Amino acid sequence: MSTTPTRQDFDQYMAPNYSPQPVIPVHGEGSRLWDQQGHEYIDFAGGIAVNALGHCHPVLVDALKTQGETLWHLSNVFTNEPALKLAKSLVERTFADKVFLCSSGGEANEAALKLARRYAVEHHGEHKDKIISFAKSFHGRTFFTVSVGGQPKYSQGFGPVPGGILHADYNDLDSVRQLMGDDTCAIMVEPMQGEGGLIPADPEFLQGLRTLCDEHNALLVFDEVQTGVGRTGKLYAYEHYGVTPDILTSAKALGGGFPVGAMLATDDVAKSLAIGTHGSTYGGNPLASAVALAALEFIDTPDVLAGVNKRHDLLRGHLERINEKHGVFSDIRGLGLLMGAQMSDAFEGRAKEILPLAIEEGAMALIAGPNVLRLAPSLVMPEADIEEGMARLERAIERLVAKG
Question: Which terminus in the chain has less CB density within 10 A, N or C?
């Protein structure tokens, strides 16, 4: 006899590494979700910047259904048409010449780091192995990527971390210069730090990183897992800066909700990922590739990208008006539809308290650390949903203020 799962079932059957909200969403359409009791929510979380076209977008549903009735999976002993079409489309739309397909952002970053190390060994020798990343950065949950990420809380307690990893300060070029040397193989950087608090890079900072890499024969790796595929109002955030990386990673919005990741690289660099050096069981499978291609082609259009910037202005305007009334934020920042509102001194460290209050008011949001409210909604969120959702979010913030 079948039963309806409850939130208590999570505690009984699931590993305790998450602490989900008490409600269980069961249906989504566009920018709205409904839970088991039929309560409706307006979604500003977007599956952590994943659901780029909202829930059950007909373009993605059609791609999934069509491919699901054709071919699901092949081993990498074979290639397949959807994977080749996706790779070709990514190459044609970016700086890259070659694409490695995988199943997640963590996998994409793992591949990028392994490629950077291997390229350096092949071209310069075993001594060139240092990777520079940044404090408060986040690059995934594999042991290599979590070690490169600049948040020790995610790598502590699992034994010795991989060596050769150094951390500089974000937007501080001098701190990078102090670590840079002939043994540096790569710099990995987010064009806008996500988990670190939604902090966009200064143009001079990224331009300086490019120059330092060129001077020291190191590779520049952009982690665009969260900022990529239209999220910032460009297909990829590097386009805002006029700085071209050697390697770029993509995931999240790339599949619009279907698990997929990609590592993009120039031809010269990609040659080091020779036969047998790396792999991914599900990487480039037909289902994921078909959905990702549909998402990519739909998002990379003038109307959608211009709409991202328009919606950014609407959301910023609402956040500013809320702040004028309640004084809860000290800064509102971000690019496109990846936005952060830093809590004011009076509400230091209390961003997380907004989330359950928002749920009760019928809105879903995120945080980026304890002090930043994060919004990452659908890139095509209807303006009416923005209006109503922000009204609900404001009621949650009013309740936070009333708590004192």
Answer: N
